[in-house]
TrEMBL record:
GO terms for cellular component: cytoplasmic stress granule; nucleolus. Keywords: Cytoplasm, DNA-binding, Endonuclease, Hydrolase, Magnesium, Metal-binding, Nuclease, Nucleus, RNA-binding. Belongs to the endonuclease V family. InterPro entries: Endonuclease-V. Its cofactor is Mg(2+). GO terms for molecular function: DNA binding; metal ion binding; RNA endonuclease activity producing 5'-phosphomonoesters, hydrolytic mechanism; single-stranded RNA binding. The lineage of its organism: Eukaryota, Metazoa, Chordata, Craniata, Vertebrata. Monomer. Interacts with PABPC1; the interaction is RNA-dependent and stimulates ENDOV activity. It is found in: Cytoplasm, Stress granule; Nucleus, Nucleolus. This is Endonuclease V. Pfam families: Endonuclease_5. CDD domains: Endonuclease_V (cd06559). The keyword Lipoprotein does not apply.
């Protein structure tokens, strides 16, 4: 890491600390307090997909689905150029700006379709400094946000140990969970078995304006397969956009 990067990291750390002051880790909406999430009608999902071999050009994707039916209400795919470098622990500074722009465009053009909660393909509180992409995007958009990761971030004393693997094998049915507890003793998220057909859990953590329990129950209620439908749809549609507009060459 050069001097320029070190200066950038210091600036990002300060910015992250400022944003973290605004983070809300509890339920703020009436629908969150209802056992059936009555009053929740629109759930959003965001994702970025990259062209193979290109770390700068990506397709930023936003989808909004109806709840609880998971019917598509809105989608937007946009090619973006990521200008910030990738530095571990600061992914949000690279990925949040284009995703935020998609949300701002929706708010301008079709405000009635704004999601009431946003699922983010990445971590929230379950992060090196307890402020991952889902927290960053949540605070900047001021939307309730849930971070859902497909792979375990080995952070704050949480690791793929034998104990972790035995906890996974103890998840017998969809809806079963176990806590992701940091070395400090703080619970930063939950591993969730999201479907009976998949034995691999997903890792759910608070992004903003939602409690962990609500985040886990809501995530489970949005899963038809292993990954919650808003994120699955965003991922599928961004990949499809890249396949259509940037087909792989025959030499690949």
């Amino acid at each position: 890491m050069g001097d320029g990067d070190e200066e950038l990291v210091r600036r990002w750390e300060r910015e992250q600390e400022c944003l973290k002051q605004r983070l809300v880790e509890e339920d703020t909406e009436a629908w969150q307090k209802n056992p059936n999430f009555s009053g929740l009608h629109r759930v959003g999902g965001v994702d970025l997909s990259f062209i193979k071999g290109d770390e700068v050009s990506a397709c930023a994707q936003l989808v909004v689905l109806s709840y609880p039916d998971m019917e598509l209400l809105y989608e937007c795919s946009e090619m973006v150029t990521l200008s910030a470098p990738y530095i571990a622990g600061f992914l949000a500074f690279r990925e949040a700006p284009p995703l935020l722009q998609l949300l701002q465009r929706l708010e301008r053009e079709q405000p009635s379709l704004m999601p009431q909660v946003l699922f983010v393909d990445g971590n929230g509180l379950f992060h090196y400094r307890e402020f991952g992409l889902a927290c960053h995007l949540g605070v900047l958009s001021d939307l309730p946000c849930v971070g859902v990761a497909k792979n375990l971030l080995q952070v704050q004393g949480v690791a793929k140990t034998d104990e972790h693997l035995s906890q996974i094998s103890a998840l017998k049915k969809a809806g079963d969970t176990f806590p992701l507890t940091a070395a400090s003793g703080r619970t930063l998220g939950q591993a969730l078995r999201s479907s009976n057909s998949s034995t691999k859990p997903i890792y759910v953590s608070v992004g903003h304006r939602i409690s962990l329990d609500t985040a886990v129950h809501l995530t489970h209620s949005c899963c038809r397969y292993r990954v919650p439908e808003p994120i699955r749809q965003a991922d599928m549609r961004s990949r499809e956009y890249l396949r259509t507009h940037f087909p792989p060459t025959s030499s690949e």
